[in-house]
Amino acid sequence: PYASPSHARVSFPGPPGGYGADVDGLEGFARTFLAAGFRVAGEDGRDPLNLMEWYAAGLAAGVDPHSPERWVRLDEHGQAKVEAASIALILHLTRPWLWDRLPPLVREQVVDYLAPAVGADYPPINWVWFQIVVEQFLASVGGPYAQEDIDRGLALAEGFEREDGWYADGSERSYDHYTGWALHLYPVLWREMAGLGPDPRHLARLERFLDDAVHLVGADGSPLIQGRSLTYRFAAAAPFWAGARAGVGSPGLLRRAASGIARHFVAHGAPDGDGVLTLGWHGKRPAIAQDYSGPGSPYWASKGLLGLSLPAGHPVWTAVEEPLPVEADDFTRVVRAPGWLVSGTRADGVVRVVNHGTDHSHPGSDLADPPLYARLGYSTATFPLLSGDPLDQSVVVLDEGGRGSHRTGFTAGPLSALASGTLVGSSRWRAHWTEPGPGPDHGHPRPGAEVRHGPLLEVVSAVRGSWEVRFVRLLERPGWLRVGGWPAPESGPGTRVVGGPGLTKSGVSVAATPLADRTLVPWCATPGEAEPGIWYVAALQLGHGGEAPSIDAWKIVWPDGTADDIPAPTLPRSRK
């Protein structure tokens, strides 16, 4: 009901996105085309719903330069470069049932539509794969392409590699779901398009990444709520299907992760009662969107249906689902590339991440904190506050107006796991105050017009079970110190902060997040200026009940009876 007469544009309900209605209609077509193409490919061309016929009509109208439904071209708007990759990918996967049956004129017009990708500039982030995929398809159908474009893009993508199979989305400390649903997904599919065999290097990276990724899914199927483009929802399942397609990892565990993510959103009203994926997380929450998002954008979630492209007899469909790590037992895990200390608890099925390595920026940048990247903690059961000064999962210095400072640009310290399984990590930064500058909000930091600097801050985290013990100190000069806890829904897993000596002021702030209109954020603070060089300590819990850890200087006795002596911090110096 949302398609134009010839099906070229699929315009879902809602106000136009930041790029306008023409781009919205193209997104709606390209992203739903992904889901349709995966289904038909997995059924070996069986198409009782005539999906290929429906999309063929839309394709013909979209690439016809004289059609009133023609698509925005790649040389008219950058977003068309993104959508062209989805179209090219599905034309490849469904070649016998769509491309091979198109009239010669339509094929020529498809090639003409995609051709501006050749020699074009693409941002040196996950977008390099869009150019690679489009030009690889053009090469396969005798169209124009530049091998140097493909080679350059592959070299850039290699440069994104980090530790333990992870990729950063560009040169910054940019770790989010794009690592899985783009930077690991496209290499698998591109090699198929190019007729190349498996690349042992990439398969090893993918397998290692997936070993971390399955630890980041909650028992209820929620993916980690961190990073931009969260309105893509179950696209977070894409890397698990990519692993299955590539033949790495345990099929039963991969399916449990992928199907669990999809079921999580279906169980929470996405799609909605009209069958539409709206801008939001569970339900409709437009505030979650970045400026590039429109009503068709959520259908990037189709990538989470890549499993449909695998036949019914594939091991990922025939294997018995295995429990997720958090369903099997409590665990702690250091994930080194993004700088995360990960703790999962079987009793409530929640996975928590304490963040000492990701801010979508560079050390020393002094930018405003992006809530989806620079907080000290993320989980599968909490959503960060998306507006206002840093409060939740923060350590801030308060200025004379009560505004919290920012940490983006911090220096990351070492991460380690003690023999007991307790995790320890740290970071240091100069407190600074700034406002995001003008320009589009893409979910990551924007330079501010003015930056004011405060004291240096050091934070050391010890993590075990549902608790983090957070050690904090100021250097060089005093300041009013505040420690913010988890932003938990009022009816959620429970959140509390227990302040130690000197952190005697406390409270609970109430705010709205995409998870709940009443989200509770406990905090503790110094009643006056904190003394430089003195370590202050607070215990933060995401979970219900139980005694707080007992803390004596650097010795912690956890609720389970484990006793740890936390090593003295050795953080590298930040710039002054």
Automatic annotation (TrEMBL):
<dbReference type="InterPro" id="IPR049349">
    <property type="entry name" value="DUF2264_N"/>
</dbReference>
<protein>
    <submittedName>
        <fullName>DUF2264 domain-containing protein</fullName>
    </submittedName>
</protein>
<dbReference type="Pfam" id="PF10022">
    <property type="entry name" value="DUF2264"/>
</dbReference>
<feature type="domain" description="DUF2264">
    <location>
        <begin position="1"/>
        <end position="324"/>
    </location>
</feature>
<dbReference type="InterPro" id="IPR016624">
    <property type="entry name" value="UCP014753"/>
</dbReference>
